[in-house]
Please model this.
Amino acid sequence: MNLTQAQEGKEYIIKEILTDDEELNAFLFSLGCYSGEPITVISHRKGGCIVSVKDSRYNIDTQLAEAVIV
Model:
């Protein structure tokens, strides 16, 4: 499942990042989103969701959220 389907407040482990876009991949890596890293969906918002990774919170859009498989 991807982050758009994840339950709010529950911690997940990132299994993989599904994207062919190297820029998107590099951006997610810079946020700390890579395989094996824990991630928590804080809340779902219109057009994306707020996630917590490595004690930081980020608002990511739907395209990014769909690329992160947990």
Observations:
- The two ends are 6 Å apart (CA to CA).
